[in-house]
Structures are given as C-alpha cells and as structure tokens.
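User: Design a sequence. Structure:
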C-alpha cells in the first residue's frame, strides 16, 4: 500500500493543497505521523482540540452517549442537547435561546438568517475578517481571494477597518440589521480589538436599532483564558471550533428580542445538536471547570507570548492560547516547515504571520520545549 500522503491526491478534491503530513494518532498535545515521528501540536486542529487528543473525559462521554442514544433528529428532544443549551446560557449569564449547528459557518448562517428577520438587509462587517465559507458567511468575510470566484454573494455588506470606531459609526445606519465582528481576528493572524472597540460597537448598534453579532467561533470556549473573549453583551454570539473538542458542533446564542427572530419553519438542521456532539461539548465544559483550565490558559498564554520574543519577531499578539506573531520578513511558510522538522506543528496565516492555537491542556513542559526550539526554528527558516 502506498503512503497515505501519496494516496490522498488521487481521491480527495484539491481544495486544501497538499497535506503537510499524514497523522495517525494523538494523545494530549502530541500527535504522531505515519512514519512514527512525534510532534507537539501547537495548532490543535485550528483551535478545535481544546482537550487535546484522546482526552479520557471526551472519549468516555462520546462512547457512553453513542451506546445510549446516538442520533434522533430535531423532531425529538434529548437530554444532552437541553443541558448544553442551559450550560451555555448559564456561562453567558443572560436570558436567551440557543440554536445548534455542526460548524462555525453554519452557526453564522443561522445568525445571518436571524438578522434578515429584523426586516433590514444591510450588514456591516470588518476588513480582514473571517466568518466561514458558505455563501452567507462568505458574504461577510472580507478576503477577496475567497469571495471573488463566488460572487454575487448575498446581502448588502459594508466592510470597515477593524478597530476603527469612527468608520463603524459612519457605516451603521437606521437601515443596518447587524454589525458582525470577531473579538480577536483569528484567521487574519490574531488581531486584537483595541480597548473599548466592542463597547463602542454595542453603543453604535444600539443607537440605530441594529444587532451586535459577535463571532466567537475561534475565540470562545476558553481559548483566550475567559470562556467568552468579551463581556460585551451582544445580541447574537456564535461558537463552534473548541466547543466539541474535535466532535463537530457549533451554536448560535441569541439574547433578548434577538432570541425570537427565528420562528418555527424559519431554520433547521438534521445533525445540529445531535446528542453525541452535545455530550462531547458537555465533557469539554466540565473539564474546563474541573481542571481550572481558564487560569491555566491565561498563565501559559502569557508565558508563551513572553518567550516568543526574538530579533526576527516584529510583534507578538493575542490572548490566552490564541497567539499570533509577525515576522520581519515573509518567512512564515519557512518557519512552519522548520518547526515541523523540529517536531512542532504551527500555522501560517499570511506570508509573514504565524499563529499558535494549541490545546487548552498544553503542558508547561511542552510550551517550554517549543520556546527552547524557537530560536533555532527561526534561524533555519531565515537560512532557507
Ligand atoms: C473558523 C471560523 C469560522 C468558520 O468555522 P467552520 O467550522 O470552519 O465553518 C467562522 N468564524 C470564525 C471567526 C472562525 O475562526
């Protein structure tokens, strides 16, 4: 049998480019490739594997739920789904309602449809944003390369520079249905909102009767050292990536009047809120609490950010374990390759930007191993 990497392009559509590795096994923040080489996984399935790989609590929850009741469709209620909705609203500390999906882009589609029920169609989004790849979410995503082949996209969308309060105030009008924004722009290479930006967004949208929609697909579920990256009270909040710890699940949380925008028949999903996915998410929430992971993420994130300083590193950004850094040259791809050779998985966001989004359970020893290897990784990258 040829190697997995050789078989891949023969049967898989070429949407992602050639795979970097074929992985066969994982444990904690470690993964192994098909040749038995071990890596510290500092990408965590793109901010998804909150509990790392093969976490016993996640394995037990999924196994037990699948043995009990695996799937029933949304004609029926299940206990894990209801409990998960209650827990998420409890964490938000507000009255609201939840709609479950299977992914981030679907959570955003649900939110997009909710905004249409306001009777308004104008939306405001930010430059450098990423909200997903389905047509609605793509309409809100700024990146031209992703958008252009698929235009016309739905909606009337105005894009404003991220963090610019004046531009936002000028863009939001009495015709605006919603402003959608990430608390930190993950895909862009981790841009952190300037202090007061989301508070200003809350004020501006409220002044015009528009909804504030915070996309926490990447930043939510403890990633930043807080369960939600922002305390600002949005009308719509979307979650996905880290929520299921690797089992696909997303959620739209809607608060106040926004919670009743979607009415019977307005939206649906076959898989969304499936009991196995909900049980996985409950295991993630339980473990974050039981193991004090928010504190751990906060501390380890600071430690990592401090340790990444280097003459070739122009800037280190981020909160908790969502970390972005800019190199002083277009060496991100070379750094990813050099890191992989050294046994570390990291991610390139743009030609000069690198992102880390490791499991929330990353150990200090693994973080230190990476920091110790980092100068050598950069040296290697800049030599190529
Ligand atoms: C990843 C991401 C999405 C899309 O999620 P998928 O599960 O890939 O559809 C949407 N918004 C943000 C902020 C993301 O980081």
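Assistant: Done.
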């Amino acid at each position: 049998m040829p190697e997995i990497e050789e078989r891949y392009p023969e049967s898989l559509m070429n949407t992602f480019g050639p795979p970097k590795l074929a992985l066969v096994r994982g444990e904690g923040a470690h993964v192994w490739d098909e040749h038995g080489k071990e890596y510290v996984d500092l990408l965590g399935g793109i901010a998804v594997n909150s509990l790392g790989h093969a976490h016993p609590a996640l394995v037990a929850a999924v196994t037990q739920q699948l043995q009990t009741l695996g799937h029933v469709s949304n004609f029926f209620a299940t206990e894990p789904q209801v409990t998960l909705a209650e827990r998420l609203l409890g964490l938000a500390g507000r009255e609201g309602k939840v709609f479950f999906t299977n992914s981030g882009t679907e959570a955003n589609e649900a939110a997009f449809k909710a905004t249409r029920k306001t009777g308004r169609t104008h939306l405001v989004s930010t430059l450098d944003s990423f909200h997903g790849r389905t047509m609605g979410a793509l309409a809100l995503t700024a990146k031209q390369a992703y958008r252009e082949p698929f235009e016309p996209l739905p909606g009337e969308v105005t894009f404003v520079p991220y963090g610019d309060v004046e531009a936002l105030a000028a863009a939001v009008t009495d015709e605006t249905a919603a402003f959608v924004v990430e608390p930190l722009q993950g895909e862009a290479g981790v841009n952190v909102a300037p202090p007061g930006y989301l508070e200003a967004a809350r004020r501006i949208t409220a002044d015009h009767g528009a909804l504030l929609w915070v996309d926490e697909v990447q930043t939510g579920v403890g990633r930043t050292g807080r369960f939600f990256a922002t305390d600002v009270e949005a009308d719509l909040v979307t979650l996905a990536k880290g929520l299921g710890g690797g089992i696909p699940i997303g959620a739209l949380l809607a608060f106040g009047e926004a919670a009743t925008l979607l009415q019977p028949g307005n939206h649906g999903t076959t898989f969304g809120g499936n009991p196995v996915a909900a049980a996985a998410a409950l295991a993630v929430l339980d473990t974050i609490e039981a193991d004090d992971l928010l504190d751990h993420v906060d501390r380890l994130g600071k430690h990592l950010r401090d340790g990444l300083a280097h003459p070739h590193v122009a800037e280190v950004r981020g909160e908790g374990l969502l970390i972005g850094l800019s190199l002083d040259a277009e060496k991100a791809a070379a750094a990813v390759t050099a890191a992989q050779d050294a046994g570390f998985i990291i991610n390139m966001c743009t030609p000069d930007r690198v992102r880390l989004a490791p499991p929330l359970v990353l150990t200090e020893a693994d973080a230190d191993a990476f920091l110790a290897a980092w100068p050598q990784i950069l040296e290697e990258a800049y030599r190529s």
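The pocket of pyridoxal-5'-phosphate is lined by residues 103-105, 108, 130-132, 182, 186-187, 215, 217-218, 240-241 (CB under 6 Å). The CA atoms of residues 7 and 151 lie 33 Å apart.
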